[in-house]
Design a protein that fits this description.
Layout lengths: L1 H12 L3 E3 H8 L3 H9 L7 E4 L2 E5 H16 L4 H10 L1
Antiparallel strand pairs: 1-3, 2-3
């Protein structure tokens, strides 16, 4: 039943929906951690699929993961380096 509903939404939106267990496994965070990030506007918002089921758009989770990966590789800017030099 839930697979049929998920497929219907996917067909209507042209988008894949990922349910909570999949999202938690992909991002490597706990449910409360994801909830806090959502509350603070730092994680894509979930939407109700019905009953107690929630899901996220796969493209939004993909984008969030990509942003986190890019932040990891981000080098400090010239201004940030100058500020660090003044502090240290």
């Amino acid at each position: 039943m839930k697979e049929k509903r998920d497929q219907l939404i996917k067909d209507q939106m042209g988008e894949s929906i990922q349910r909570k267990p999949v999202v938690l496994a992909r991002v490597g965070l706990s449910d409360p951690a994801v909830w806090r990030l959502e509350r603070d506007g730092l994680f894509p918002k979930r939407f109700k699929l019905g009953g107690n089921s929630v899901g996220w758009l796969k493209s939004e989770i993909d984008a969030w993961i990509e942003l986190r990966a890019n932040d990891r590789l981000k080098l400090p800017s010239v201004a940030e380096k100058a500020q660090l030099a003044q502090q240290g």
